[in-house]
Amino acid sequence: MTVLAQADLRLDAGFWDYTLIAIYFVFVLGIGLMARYAVSNSLDFFLSGRSLPAWVTGLAFISANLGAIEIIGMSANGAQYGMPTMHYFWIGAVPAMLFLGVVMMPFYYGSKVRSVPEFMLRRFSSPAHLVNAISFALAQVLIAGINLYLLATLVNVLLGWPITVSVVVAAAIVLSYITLGGLSAAIYNEVLQFFVIVAALFPLTMVALQRVGGWDGLVSRIEQQTGSGAQTGAWPGSELAGFDSSVLSVIGIVFGLGFVLSFGYWTTNFVEVQRAMASKSMSSARRTPIIGAFPKMFIPFIVVIPGMIAGVLVPELARYKQTQSAQTGVDYNDALLLLIRDLLPNGMLGLAISGLLASFMAGMAANVSSFNTVFSYDIWQRYVVKDRDDAYYLRVGRVVTVLATVAAIGTAAIAATYSNLMDYLQQLFSFFNAPLFATFILGMFWKRMTPAAGWTGLVAGTLAAVTVFIMSETGLVGLPGQGTAFVAAGAAFVVDIAVSVAVTAVTAPKAEAELVGLVYSLTPRESFYDPRDEGQAWYQRPTLMAGIALALIIILNVAFA
């Protein structure tokens, strides 16, 4: 982000701005200290003792995803591509979240597994479990690096510290409360951070819309700037998908983003599933992603729209959008910071900065807290040091939290090389999430799938995605925008399925008795009954809530087509 080296872009924070930021940090660290006293064993540290109510885990579920990548990345996407960015929410998130709550959470929560890789171990075997655990751990360190880099850039803009110093200080902030209170500290801070983020971005959006002449004024200025209406309607989103054909663009968005990448992320990514697993009952676990779906569908109005406004209202960014020249001193990742710089007065500036800090810390804390669980349970306890007492694994979890944070400092350097971090993020998802979703969904609904097919499909799918990426980087395949990630995800999914079916045909499956609770057709519905859910009100039924959310998503897609 070249903008961050420019002294004239320093955010002019005053006394009241710093006061608001200081108050926010007092609350963050206070929550970590209070959560520390609730941690008596490893289950408390890694899964909050499975004791949290649905509204808390639901807000944490969405806040964990509302990190630096979401705020900066989606505003960057808004500045670059406009309204088609809404697909990351309305097509690429909410449907998969509803599927997770209605169909998949009963298997996760009912099986009493502690992580997604542990589910893979029980459904398949140790090789599939180890491949999934290692790939997940690597992905979280890489993604934590993105969040950490963006958190450090904000410290750099605010205080003028060198970026290296900012990275270390930002890492220490997150590390302090995660090490103290584990997942509970992360979750309760994520709830706080959700409200701080909304309180910061909603006023910014309103001020920016007023400055640009309202929605009609924004549409008019974007169409004048781009010479078309492609960025003022969600469909077909050809620039985003990288296809000239409208038909191929819709197929790429619906299949590549809406099915493979979206379902691969939301239904198998332990960062999100971990929040639902911390719930106090089966119904609470199922409602967690469904509750999160309601704010998720409206968040783009305070994230994407400001990015679109910055693309036409901020002179430097408007020039960059026209020329794509580094000489402008900015790139799309700077959209939100530039808008804050130009529009917000002191006091409001402090609130906005607190909101950005909140989002960056929420994202990194989610990565680190899920990493320490998978590393401690699924790698260290399973393959390195077995059969030790619980206190030992609790200590391992705290040490690993420190090591993951240090590793994220290193991977932050990779994030610094991208002008639009969503390009990088979607590529990572195509490597790690798309093949996992193929293996997972096939194994859940096809009882014949064998343990050997589980790990070979995962490896083959990942290699397929990496191959597409290499072909794109070397010029063999030319796909602008995020089309490479969409194609890589589709290739990973198809290759994983094909290899899994082929290997299953020549290898032996597990006995059906071993798959009860892990395969849909072999699991009686009564096994998902939870007596703690007795007396539940009609409006708390997960399927009803999911139906309402789905109807709203259809309305939004039609209204902004």
TrEMBL record:
InterPro entries: Na/Glc_symporter_sf, Na/solute_symporter. Gene3D superfamilies: Sodium/glucose cotransporter. The keyword Membrane applies. GO terms for molecular function: D-glucose:sodium symporter activity. The keyword Membrane applies. The chain crosses the membrane at residues 20-39, 51-76, 88-109, 130-152, 158-179, 191-209, 247-268, 289-314, 348-375, 396-418, 424-445, 452-472, 542-560. Keywords: Membrane, Transmembrane, Transmembrane helix. It comes from the Bacteria. It is a multi-pass membrane protein. It is found in: Membrane. Belongs to the sodium:solute symporter (SSF) (TC 2.A.21) family. This is SSS family solute:Na+ symporter. It comes from Haloactinopolyspora alba. The lineage of its organism: Bacteria, Bacillati, Actinomycetota, Actinomycetes, Jiangellales.
